[in-house]
Amino acid sequence: MISKFDALEQTLATHIFSYQDILLGGRSPTNAQSIRNLTGLHALNHVLKTRDRVIKANSRLVKDADLELRDQGFTRPKVLILLPTRQSCVKYVDTMINFLQPEQQENKHRFNKSYFKPLDQWEDKPEDFQELFAGNGDDMFRLGLKLTRKTVKYFSQFYNSDIVLASPLGLRTAIDKSSETQKEDYDFLSSIEICIVDQADALLMQNWQHTLHVFSHLNLLPKEAHNTDFSRVRPWYLDGHSKHFRQTLIFSAFLTPDLNSLSATHLQPIAGRVKITPPYPGAILSLPLLPPNLTLKQTFSRFPSSTPQSDPQTRLTYFTTAVLPSLLKLSTIPTLVFVPTHSLFLSLRNHLSTAQSASSVSFANISEYTTVSEVSRARSHLARGRHSLLLYTERAHHFRRYKIKGVKRIVMLGLPENPVFYGEIVGMLGLNSENGESGAQTANIRVMFSKWDALKLERIVGTEKVAGMLREKGGDTFEFV
Asked: What value does the mean pLDDT of the chain take?
Protein backbone atom coordinates (compact mmCIF):
# COMPACT_ATOMS: atom_id res chain seq x y z
CA MET A 1 0.00 0.00 0.00
CA ILE A 2 1.09 3.59 -0.59
CA SER A 3 1.35 5.49 2.70
CA LYS A 4 3.30 8.60 1.73
CA PHE A 5 4.67 9.94 -1.57
CA ASP A 6 8.33 10.86 -1.95
CA ALA A 7 9.42 13.68 -4.29
CA LEU A 8 9.46 11.52 -7.43
CA GLU A 9 6.13 9.90 -6.61
CA GLN A 10 4.53 13.30 -6.06
CA THR A 11 5.77 14.47 -9.46
CA LEU A 12 4.64 11.33 -11.23
CA ALA A 13 1.28 11.16 -9.46
CA THR A 14 0.39 14.68 -10.59
CA HIS A 15 0.82 13.75 -14.25
CA ILE A 16 -0.39 10.14 -14.06
CA PHE A 17 -3.71 10.94 -12.40
CA SER A 18 -4.18 13.88 -14.80
CA TYR A 19 -3.98 11.37 -17.66
CA GLN A 20 -0.93 13.04 -19.20
CA ASP A 21 1.66 11.04 -21.12
CA ILE A 22 5.00 10.53 -19.37
CA LEU A 23 8.44 9.70 -20.71
CA LEU A 24 10.67 9.12 -17.67
CA GLY A 25 14.42 8.69 -18.02
CA GLY A 26 15.22 8.08 -14.36
CA ARG A 27 13.87 4.64 -13.55
CA SER A 28 16.07 2.53 -11.29
CA PRO A 29 15.82 -0.63 -9.16
CA THR A 30 15.40 1.70 -6.18
CA ASN A 31 12.25 3.45 -7.45
CA ALA A 32 10.89 0.55 -9.52
CA GLN A 33 8.34 -0.57 -6.94
CA SER A 34 7.12 2.99 -6.45
CA ILE A 35 6.47 3.23 -10.18
CA ARG A 36 4.64 -0.10 -10.17
CA ASN A 37 2.54 1.05 -7.22
CA LEU A 38 1.45 4.27 -8.92
CA THR A 39 0.80 2.82 -12.35
CA GLY A 40 -0.82 -0.38 -11.02
CA LEU A 41 -3.16 1.63 -8.81
CA HIS A 42 -3.96 3.99 -11.70
CA ALA A 43 -4.71 1.09 -14.08
CA LEU A 44 -7.01 -0.63 -11.59
CA ASN A 45 -8.79 2.61 -10.76
CA HIS A 46 -9.39 3.29 -14.44
CA VAL A 47 -10.73 -0.20 -15.17
CA LEU A 48 -13.03 -0.27 -12.13
CA LYS A 49 -14.39 3.23 -12.76
CA THR A 50 -15.07 2.33 -16.38
CA ARG A 51 -16.88 -0.86 -15.35
CA ASP A 52 -19.01 0.98 -12.78
CA ARG A 53 -19.91 3.60 -15.35
CA VAL A 54 -21.12 0.92 -17.78
CA ILE A 55 -23.11 -0.90 -15.07
CA LYS A 56 -24.86 2.33 -14.07
CA ALA A 57 -25.60 3.11 -17.72
CA ASN A 58 -27.10 -0.36 -18.16
CA SER A 59 -29.45 0.31 -15.24
CA ARG A 60 -30.51 3.63 -16.71
CA LEU A 61 -31.21 2.05 -20.10
CA VAL A 62 -33.48 -0.51 -18.46
CA LYS A 63 -35.63 2.35 -17.21
CA ASP A 64 -35.37 4.48 -20.37
CA ALA A 65 -34.35 2.70 -23.57
CA ASP A 66 -34.31 5.95 -25.56
CA LEU A 67 -31.32 7.38 -23.71
CA GLU A 68 -28.16 7.94 -25.78
CA LEU A 69 -25.21 6.91 -23.64
CA ARG A 70 -21.73 6.94 -25.12
CA ASP A 71 -19.60 5.16 -22.56
CA GLN A 72 -17.65 2.39 -24.35
CA GLY A 73 -14.99 1.56 -26.88
CA PHE A 74 -15.04 -1.10 -29.57
CA THR A 75 -13.59 -3.89 -27.40
CA ARG A 76 -13.16 -4.62 -23.70
CA PRO A 77 -9.38 -4.36 -23.05
CA LYS A 78 -8.59 -0.94 -21.61
CA VAL A 79 -5.05 -1.26 -20.25
CA LEU A 80 -1.92 -2.61 -21.98
CA ILE A 81 1.28 -3.17 -19.98
CA LEU A 82 4.44 -3.94 -21.98
CA LEU A 83 7.22 -5.61 -19.99
CA PRO A 84 10.55 -7.31 -20.83
CA THR A 85 10.28 -10.61 -18.90
CA ARG A 86 7.84 -12.92 -17.16
CA GLN A 87 9.40 -11.99 -13.83
CA SER A 88 8.51 -8.34 -14.52
CA CYS A 89 4.97 -9.52 -15.22
CA VAL A 90 4.84 -11.34 -11.87
CA LYS A 91 5.87 -8.16 -10.05
CA TYR A 92 3.17 -6.09 -11.79
CA VAL A 93 0.47 -8.66 -11.20
CA ASP A 94 1.42 -9.03 -7.52
CA THR A 95 1.31 -5.25 -7.11
CA MET A 96 -2.19 -4.98 -8.55
CA ILE A 97 -3.48 -7.99 -6.60
CA ASN A 98 -2.21 -6.42 -3.38
CA PHE A 99 -4.30 -3.34 -4.13
CA LEU A 100 -7.35 -5.23 -5.35
CA GLN A 101 -7.53 -7.97 -2.67
CA PRO A 102 -10.00 -10.15 -4.64
CA GLU A 103 -11.94 -12.91 -2.93
CA GLN A 104 -11.11 -15.39 -5.71
CA GLN A 105 -8.29 -15.77 -8.23
CA GLU A 106 -9.09 -18.13 -11.07
CA ASN A 107 -6.13 -19.93 -12.71
CA LYS A 108 -3.71 -18.54 -10.10
CA HIS A 109 -1.97 -21.92 -9.80
CA ARG A 110 -1.47 -22.03 -13.57
CA PHE A 111 -0.06 -18.50 -13.47
CA ASN A 112 2.43 -19.35 -10.73
CA LYS A 113 3.50 -22.50 -12.54
CA SER A 114 4.02 -20.71 -15.86
CA TYR A 115 5.53 -17.43 -14.65
CA PHE A 116 7.08 -17.79 -11.22
CA LYS A 117 10.60 -19.11 -10.63
CA PRO A 118 12.80 -18.81 -7.55
CA LEU A 119 15.11 -15.81 -7.75
CA ASP A 120 18.64 -16.59 -8.88
CA GLN A 121 21.46 -15.63 -6.54
CA TRP A 122 24.03 -13.57 -8.42
CA GLU A 123 26.13 -11.94 -5.75
CA ASP A 124 28.71 -10.87 -8.32
CA LYS A 125 26.14 -9.23 -10.64
CA PRO A 126 25.03 -5.57 -10.39
CA GLU A 127 21.65 -4.58 -9.02
CA ASP A 128 20.06 -3.69 -12.36
CA PHE A 129 21.07 -7.07 -13.82
CA GLN A 130 19.55 -8.94 -10.88
CA GLU A 131 16.30 -6.98 -11.12
CA LEU A 132 15.91 -7.79 -14.81
CA PHE A 133 17.09 -11.38 -15.04
CA ALA A 134 16.51 -12.90 -11.60
CA GLY A 135 13.58 -15.32 -11.67
CA ASN A 136 11.85 -16.09 -14.96
CA GLY A 137 13.69 -14.19 -17.69
CA ASP A 138 11.58 -15.49 -20.58
CA ASP A 139 10.73 -12.63 -22.97
CA MET A 140 7.93 -14.50 -24.77
CA PHE A 141 4.62 -14.11 -22.94
CA ARG A 142 1.15 -12.53 -23.02
CA LEU A 143 -1.46 -12.60 -20.29
CA GLY A 144 -5.06 -11.40 -20.10
CA LEU A 145 -6.64 -10.39 -16.79
CA LYS A 146 -10.40 -10.15 -16.33
CA LEU A 147 -11.66 -8.24 -13.33
CA THR A 148 -15.09 -8.73 -11.80
CA ARG A 149 -16.46 -7.48 -8.50
CA LYS A 150 -14.93 -10.27 -6.41
CA THR A 151 -12.74 -12.23 -8.83
CA VAL A 152 -9.62 -11.92 -10.94
CA LYS A 153 -9.32 -14.39 -13.80
CA TYR A 154 -5.88 -15.13 -15.25
CA PHE A 155 -5.40 -16.22 -18.88
CA SER A 156 -8.72 -14.81 -20.02
CA GLN A 157 -9.17 -14.38 -23.76
CA PHE A 158 -8.04 -10.96 -24.92
CA TYR A 159 -11.53 -9.89 -25.97
CA ASN A 160 -12.80 -10.78 -22.48
CA SER A 161 -9.91 -9.12 -20.64
CA ASP A 162 -9.65 -5.75 -18.96
CA ILE A 163 -5.85 -5.68 -18.69
CA VAL A 164 -3.31 -7.23 -21.06
CA LEU A 165 0.27 -7.77 -19.87
CA ALA A 166 2.76 -8.89 -22.51
CA SER A 167 6.24 -8.66 -23.89
CA PRO A 168 6.52 -6.96 -27.30
CA LEU A 169 7.54 -10.30 -28.83
CA GLY A 170 4.64 -12.15 -27.25
CA LEU A 171 2.12 -9.54 -28.34
CA ARG A 172 3.48 -9.34 -31.86
CA THR A 173 3.10 -13.09 -32.32
CA ALA A 174 -0.52 -12.69 -31.23
CA ILE A 175 -1.05 -9.91 -33.77
CA ASP A 176 0.75 -11.64 -36.65
CA LYS A 177 -0.87 -15.00 -37.19
CA SER A 178 1.54 -17.72 -38.30
CA SER A 179 -1.02 -19.70 -40.23
CA GLU A 180 -1.67 -18.61 -43.81
CA THR A 181 -5.39 -19.13 -43.28
CA GLN A 182 -5.47 -16.64 -40.41
CA LYS A 183 -5.32 -12.89 -40.75
CA GLU A 184 -3.75 -10.25 -38.55
CA ASP A 185 -5.76 -9.74 -35.39
CA TYR A 186 -5.20 -6.45 -33.58
CA ASP A 187 -8.80 -5.46 -32.91
CA PHE A 188 -8.34 -6.20 -29.19
CA LEU A 189 -5.95 -3.21 -29.10
CA SER A 190 -8.49 -0.83 -30.64
CA SER A 191 -9.80 0.54 -27.33
CA ILE A 192 -6.65 0.72 -25.19
CA GLU A 193 -6.94 3.79 -22.98
CA ILE A 194 -3.80 3.38 -20.86
CA CYS A 195 -0.53 1.93 -22.18
CA ILE A 196 2.29 1.36 -19.68
CA VAL A 197 5.82 0.51 -20.85
CA ASP A 198 8.13 -0.41 -17.98
CA GLN A 199 11.88 -1.07 -18.26
CA ALA A 200 11.92 0.37 -21.76
CA ASP A 201 15.74 0.32 -21.68
CA ALA A 202 15.55 -3.49 -21.47
CA LEU A 203 13.12 -3.57 -24.42
CA LEU A 204 15.69 -1.59 -26.43
CA MET A 205 18.16 -4.43 -25.90
CA GLN A 206 15.61 -6.90 -27.25
CA ASN A 207 14.19 -6.40 -30.74
CA TRP A 208 12.94 -2.81 -30.70
CA GLN A 209 11.00 -3.41 -33.90
CA HIS A 210 8.54 -5.54 -31.92
CA THR A 211 7.72 -2.57 -29.69
CA LEU A 212 7.27 -0.28 -32.69
CA HIS A 213 5.05 -2.89 -34.32
CA VAL A 214 2.79 -3.00 -31.27
CA PHE A 215 2.48 0.79 -31.11
CA SER A 216 1.65 0.97 -34.81
CA HIS A 217 -1.36 -1.30 -34.16
CA LEU A 218 -2.75 0.53 -31.14
CA ASN A 219 -6.13 2.28 -31.39
CA LEU A 220 -6.84 1.38 -35.00
CA LEU A 221 -10.37 0.95 -36.29
CA PRO A 222 -11.34 -2.73 -35.85
CA LYS A 223 -11.86 -4.94 -38.87
CA GLU A 224 -14.76 -6.83 -37.30
CA ALA A 225 -17.69 -5.88 -35.06
CA HIS A 226 -16.96 -8.28 -32.15
CA ASN A 227 -20.54 -7.87 -30.85
CA THR A 228 -19.98 -4.17 -30.30
CA ASP A 229 -22.96 -2.02 -29.40
CA PHE A 230 -22.13 0.90 -31.71
CA SER A 231 -24.88 3.02 -30.21
CA ARG A 232 -22.75 3.25 -27.05
CA VAL A 233 -19.33 3.73 -28.64
CA ARG A 234 -17.75 7.08 -27.87
CA PRO A 235 -17.59 9.50 -30.85
CA TRP A 236 -13.80 9.76 -30.91
CA TYR A 237 -13.54 6.01 -31.39
CA LEU A 238 -15.91 6.13 -34.35
CA ASP A 239 -13.97 9.06 -35.83
CA GLY A 240 -10.63 7.25 -35.51
CA HIS A 241 -9.20 9.70 -32.96
CA SER A 242 -8.92 7.39 -29.96
CA LYS A 243 -5.12 7.50 -30.00
CA HIS A 244 -5.33 11.12 -28.84
CA PHE A 245 -7.31 10.00 -25.78
CA ARG A 246 -4.88 7.21 -24.86
CA GLN A 247 -2.50 7.80 -21.98
CA THR A 248 1.00 6.35 -22.49
CA LEU A 249 3.45 5.98 -19.61
CA ILE A 250 7.03 5.01 -20.51
CA PHE A 251 9.64 4.34 -17.83
CA SER A 252 13.29 3.81 -18.69
CA ALA A 253 16.62 3.99 -16.88
CA PHE A 254 17.74 6.50 -19.52
CA LEU A 255 16.47 8.16 -22.67
CA THR A 256 17.65 7.35 -26.18
CA PRO A 257 16.90 8.66 -29.67
CA ASP A 258 14.65 5.62 -30.20
CA LEU A 259 12.55 6.48 -27.15
CA ASN A 260 12.38 10.14 -28.16
CA SER A 261 11.27 9.09 -31.63
CA LEU A 262 8.62 6.79 -30.19
CA SER A 263 7.33 9.64 -28.05
CA ALA A 264 7.20 12.09 -30.94
CA THR A 265 5.50 9.62 -33.27
CA HIS A 266 3.02 7.76 -31.09
CA LEU A 267 2.40 9.97 -28.05
CA GLN A 268 -0.09 12.61 -29.19
CA PRO A 269 -2.56 13.05 -26.31
CA ILE A 270 -4.90 15.99 -25.92
CA ALA A 271 -4.02 16.05 -22.20
CA GLY A 272 -0.36 16.80 -22.99
CA ARG A 273 2.87 14.96 -22.32
CA VAL A 274 5.92 15.48 -20.13
CA LYS A 275 9.50 14.29 -20.32
CA ILE A 276 11.35 13.76 -17.05
CA THR A 277 15.08 13.15 -16.99
CA PRO A 278 17.60 13.87 -14.20
CA PRO A 279 20.86 15.78 -14.54
CA TYR A 280 23.88 13.49 -14.73
CA PRO A 281 27.07 13.97 -12.70
CA GLY A 282 28.85 11.62 -15.13
CA ALA A 283 29.82 7.96 -14.95
CA ILE A 284 33.50 8.93 -15.11
CA LEU A 285 33.16 10.26 -11.53
CA SER A 286 32.07 6.91 -10.10
CA LEU A 287 34.41 4.43 -11.72
CA PRO A 288 35.38 1.26 -9.82
CA LEU A 289 38.57 1.32 -7.79
CA LEU A 290 41.61 0.23 -9.78
CA PRO A 291 44.92 -1.05 -8.38
CA PRO A 292 46.99 1.82 -6.87
CA ASN A 293 49.80 1.24 -9.35
CA LEU A 294 47.48 1.75 -12.32
CA THR A 295 46.92 5.22 -13.79
CA LEU A 296 43.84 5.57 -15.97
CA LYS A 297 43.94 7.82 -19.02
CA GLN A 298 40.61 8.39 -20.80
CA THR A 299 40.72 10.00 -24.24
CA PHE A 300 37.49 11.05 -25.97
CA SER A 301 37.84 11.69 -29.70
CA ARG A 302 35.13 13.52 -31.61
CA PHE A 303 34.79 12.77 -35.29
CA PRO A 304 32.66 14.70 -37.81
CA SER A 305 29.39 13.07 -38.84
CA SER A 306 26.91 14.76 -41.15
CA THR A 307 23.72 12.72 -40.60
CA PRO A 308 22.46 10.01 -38.23
CA GLN A 309 21.92 7.72 -41.21
CA SER A 310 25.55 7.93 -42.37
CA ASP A 311 27.00 7.91 -38.86
CA PRO A 312 27.68 4.13 -38.62
CA GLN A 313 29.70 4.08 -41.84
CA THR A 314 31.48 7.31 -40.92
CA ARG A 315 32.31 5.83 -37.52
CA LEU A 316 33.72 2.66 -39.06
CA THR A 317 35.81 4.64 -41.55
CA TYR A 318 37.21 6.84 -38.78
CA PHE A 319 38.14 3.79 -36.73
CA THR A 320 39.83 1.90 -39.57
CA THR A 321 41.80 4.95 -40.77
CA ALA A 322 42.59 6.91 -37.59
CA VAL A 323 42.53 4.35 -34.77
CA LEU A 324 43.23 0.86 -36.11
CA PRO A 325 46.73 1.62 -37.52
CA SER A 326 47.98 2.59 -34.04
CA LEU A 327 46.46 -0.61 -32.61
CA LEU A 328 48.28 -2.67 -35.19
CA LYS A 329 51.62 -1.04 -34.30
CA LEU A 330 51.13 -2.07 -30.66
CA SER A 331 49.65 -5.46 -31.43
CA THR A 332 51.21 -7.06 -28.36
CA ILE A 333 48.86 -5.15 -26.02
CA PRO A 334 45.61 -7.09 -25.44
CA THR A 335 42.85 -4.69 -26.45
CA LEU A 336 39.11 -4.82 -25.89
CA VAL A 337 37.16 -3.15 -28.70
CA PHE A 338 33.69 -2.23 -27.47
CA VAL A 339 31.08 -2.04 -30.26
CA PRO A 340 27.69 -0.45 -29.43
CA THR A 341 25.53 -2.02 -32.17
CA HIS A 342 25.35 -5.41 -33.83
CA SER A 343 25.36 -3.99 -37.36
CA LEU A 344 28.57 -2.07 -36.64
CA PHE A 345 30.03 -5.21 -35.07
CA LEU A 346 29.36 -7.19 -38.27
CA SER A 347 30.92 -4.47 -40.44
CA LEU A 348 34.04 -4.28 -38.28
CA ARG A 349 34.42 -8.05 -38.10
CA ASN A 350 34.16 -8.29 -41.89
CA HIS A 351 36.74 -5.53 -42.31
CA LEU A 352 39.24 -7.21 -40.00
CA SER A 353 38.70 -10.52 -41.79
CA THR A 354 39.07 -9.27 -45.36
CA ALA A 355 41.02 -5.98 -45.45
CA GLN A 356 44.63 -6.31 -46.56
CA SER A 357 45.73 -3.62 -44.08
CA ALA A 358 44.37 -5.69 -41.18
CA SER A 359 45.72 -9.05 -42.31
CA SER A 360 48.31 -9.14 -39.52
CA VAL A 361 45.83 -8.69 -36.66
CA SER A 362 44.65 -11.66 -34.66
CA PHE A 363 41.22 -11.12 -33.14
CA ALA A 364 38.25 -12.85 -31.53
CA ASN A 365 34.72 -11.66 -30.95
CA ILE A 366 31.93 -11.93 -28.40
CA SER A 367 28.41 -10.94 -29.39
CA GLU A 368 25.00 -11.84 -27.99
CA TYR A 369 24.92 -14.77 -30.43
CA THR A 370 28.32 -16.25 -29.51
CA THR A 371 28.09 -19.71 -27.93
CA VAL A 372 29.38 -20.38 -24.43
CA SER A 373 32.27 -22.48 -25.69
CA GLU A 374 33.30 -19.81 -28.19
CA VAL A 375 33.15 -17.16 -25.48
CA SER A 376 35.41 -19.22 -23.22
CA ARG A 377 37.86 -19.75 -26.05
CA ALA A 378 37.93 -16.06 -26.98
CA ARG A 379 38.52 -14.97 -23.38
CA SER A 380 41.26 -17.53 -22.87
CA HIS A 381 43.07 -16.57 -26.08
CA LEU A 382 43.03 -12.88 -25.17
CA ALA A 383 44.33 -13.52 -21.66
CA ARG A 384 47.15 -15.71 -22.99
CA GLY A 385 48.10 -13.29 -25.75
CA ARG A 386 47.05 -15.47 -28.67
CA HIS A 387 44.69 -12.69 -29.80
CA SER A 388 45.49 -9.01 -29.63
CA LEU A 389 41.93 -7.73 -30.21
CA LEU A 390 38.62 -8.82 -28.74
CA LEU A 391 35.43 -7.37 -30.25
CA TYR A 392 32.75 -7.08 -27.59
CA THR A 393 29.18 -5.88 -28.20
CA GLU A 394 26.95 -3.89 -25.84
CA ARG A 395 24.13 -6.43 -26.06
CA ALA A 396 26.53 -9.23 -25.09
CA HIS A 397 27.44 -7.25 -21.98
CA HIS A 398 23.78 -6.49 -21.27
CA PHE A 399 22.80 -10.16 -21.28
CA ARG A 400 25.94 -11.65 -19.69
CA ARG A 401 27.96 -8.98 -17.83
CA TYR A 402 31.26 -10.74 -18.45
CA LYS A 403 34.38 -9.79 -16.50
CA ILE A 404 37.15 -10.28 -19.03
CA LYS A 405 40.68 -10.71 -17.71
CA GLY A 406 43.86 -9.77 -19.51
CA VAL A 407 42.56 -6.49 -20.99
CA LYS A 408 45.24 -3.77 -20.93
CA ARG A 409 43.69 -1.27 -23.32
CA ILE A 410 40.12 -0.38 -24.28
CA VAL A 411 38.82 1.22 -27.45
CA MET A 412 35.15 2.15 -27.74
CA LEU A 413 33.70 2.66 -31.22
CA GLY A 414 30.83 4.33 -29.43
CA LEU A 415 29.59 4.93 -25.93
CA PRO A 416 27.23 2.45 -24.29
CA GLU A 417 23.61 3.50 -23.86
CA ASN A 418 23.69 2.32 -20.26
CA PRO A 419 26.18 4.45 -18.29
CA VAL A 420 26.62 1.60 -15.80
CA PHE A 421 28.32 -0.39 -18.55
CA TYR A 422 31.09 2.20 -18.90
CA GLY A 423 32.29 1.68 -15.35
CA GLU A 424 31.99 -2.09 -15.60
CA ILE A 425 34.11 -2.19 -18.76
CA VAL A 426 36.70 0.15 -17.29
CA GLY A 427 36.83 -2.16 -14.27
CA MET A 428 38.14 -4.96 -16.49
CA LEU A 429 41.50 -3.18 -16.55
CA GLY A 430 41.85 -3.82 -12.83
CA LEU A 431 41.54 -7.57 -13.25
CA ASN A 432 45.15 -7.73 -14.49
CA SER A 433 46.38 -7.31 -10.94
CA GLU A 434 45.43 -10.92 -10.29
CA ASN A 435 48.20 -11.94 -12.66
CA GLY A 436 50.82 -10.57 -10.30
CA GLU A 437 51.69 -7.49 -12.36
CA SER A 438 53.40 -4.74 -10.39
CA GLY A 439 55.05 -1.36 -10.98
CA ALA A 440 53.53 1.88 -12.21
CA GLN A 441 51.39 1.37 -15.28
CA THR A 442 49.08 3.44 -17.47
CA ALA A 443 45.84 2.01 -18.81
CA ASN A 444 44.46 3.76 -21.87
CA ILE A 445 40.83 4.09 -22.89
CA ARG A 446 39.95 5.73 -26.19
CA VAL A 447 36.34 6.62 -26.89
CA MET A 448 34.95 7.72 -30.24
CA PHE A 449 31.87 9.93 -30.35
CA SER A 450 29.97 12.23 -32.69
CA LYS A 451 27.38 14.93 -32.12
CA TRP A 452 24.68 12.27 -32.49
CA ASP A 453 25.92 10.66 -29.26
CA ALA A 454 24.86 13.63 -27.13
CA LEU A 455 22.52 11.69 -24.83
CA LYS A 456 25.07 8.91 -24.25
CA LEU A 457 27.91 11.36 -23.75
CA GLU A 458 25.95 13.35 -21.18
CA ARG A 459 25.48 10.27 -19.02
CA ILE A 460 29.20 9.43 -19.17
CA VAL A 461 30.93 12.83 -18.79
CA GLY A 462 28.14 14.71 -17.03
CA THR A 463 25.58 17.33 -17.94
CA GLU A 464 27.98 20.21 -17.28
CA LYS A 465 30.72 18.99 -19.62
CA VAL A 466 28.72 17.62 -22.53
CA ALA A 467 27.93 20.93 -24.24
CA GLY A 468 31.58 21.94 -24.53
CA MET A 469 32.58 18.57 -25.94
CA LEU A 470 29.93 18.72 -28.65
CA ARG A 471 30.81 22.19 -29.98
CA GLU A 472 31.94 22.17 -33.58
CA LYS A 473 34.68 24.75 -32.97
CA GLY A 474 37.80 24.11 -30.92
CA GLY A 475 39.62 20.87 -30.30
CA ASP A 476 38.18 17.43 -30.93
CA THR A 477 40.19 15.50 -28.33
CA PHE A 478 39.40 15.53 -24.61
CA GLU A 479 41.38 13.79 -21.91
CA PHE A 480 40.36 12.75 -18.40
CA VAL A 481 42.90 11.33 -15.95
From this structure: 91
